[in-house]
């Protein structure tokens, strides 16, 4: 029997009390948490078939949620459906998001691939998981971090994507390549100078990544994100 760190269900699985999340009569959901190599705690869900045989090793998949979301949004749906197809699955809140540890809503691409590998570590502790058949599914922005993890972690045998979105490109070039190289350089220069402000004890300014207010110039994507 694998050892897991379990957090209280009431505090962890908001989907248990909501009526707009997919639930399957064939799927068991277990709240879990595990550590990364950066000594941060990741909170997630383990999905497995009800009454799964402990003597049979199943393939398994780590499922990453869309950028700016949490595991309950999209990732849990994919995870439950994959269990119905014969997989064991894990969803996780990326570092600094949802119930996972750290400065809330911080975006840190360095930490994200490690969280994926840590999820593989955790999956491998269950005797009903085949360590040689573990893959990963990225949804939207998490695809990039899943791929980054797979490039350096050969235990991830396969990668699948849904609504693949290149977060690196959109941050470099802007949405629909709306940001020029010079504008990017200005942003980098401004961010660099803000570090001196932190050194000089000035209050730090954080970028939220989305609009605070809509204007007549806001496009449909901005409006969708604002509404969400």
TrEMBL record:
Q: Where is the signal peptide?
A: none
Looking at the record's lineage, which domain of life comes first? Eukaryota
What family does this belong to?
Answer: Belongs to the polyketide transferase af380 family.
What this protein is called in its record is: Dienelactone hydrolase domain-containing protein
The top of its lineage is: Eukaryota, Fungi, Dikarya, Ascomycota, Pezizomycotina
């Amino acid at each position: 029997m694998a050892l897991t760190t379990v957090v209280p269900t009431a505090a962890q699985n908001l989907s248990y009390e909501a009526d707009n999340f997919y639930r399957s009569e064939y799927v068991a959901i277990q709240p879990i948490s595990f550590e990364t190599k950066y000594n941060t705690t990741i909170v997630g869900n383990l999905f497995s078939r009800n009454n799964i045989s402990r003597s049979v090793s199943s393939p398994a998949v780590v499922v990453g949620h869309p950028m700016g979301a949490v595991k309950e949004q999209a990732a849990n749906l994919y995870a439950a459906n994959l269990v119905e197809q014969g997989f064991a699955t894990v969803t996780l809140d990326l570092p600094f998001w949802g119930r996972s540890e750290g400065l809330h809503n911080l975006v840190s691409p360095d930490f994200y691939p490690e969280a994926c590998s840590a999820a593989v570590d955790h999956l491998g502790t269950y005797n009903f998981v085949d360590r040689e058949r573990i893959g990963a599914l990225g949804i939207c922005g998490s695809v990039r971090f899943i791929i980054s993890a797979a490039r350096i972690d050969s235990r991830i045998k396969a990668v699948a994507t849904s609504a693949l979105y290149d977060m690196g490109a959109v941050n470099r070039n802007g949405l629909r390549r709306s940001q020029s190289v010079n504008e990017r350089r200005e942003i980098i220069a401004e961010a660099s100078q803000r570090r001196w402000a932190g050194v000089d004890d000035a209050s730090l300014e954080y970028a939220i990544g989305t609009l605070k207010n809509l204007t007549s110039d806001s496009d449909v994507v901005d409006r969708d994100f604002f509404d969400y």
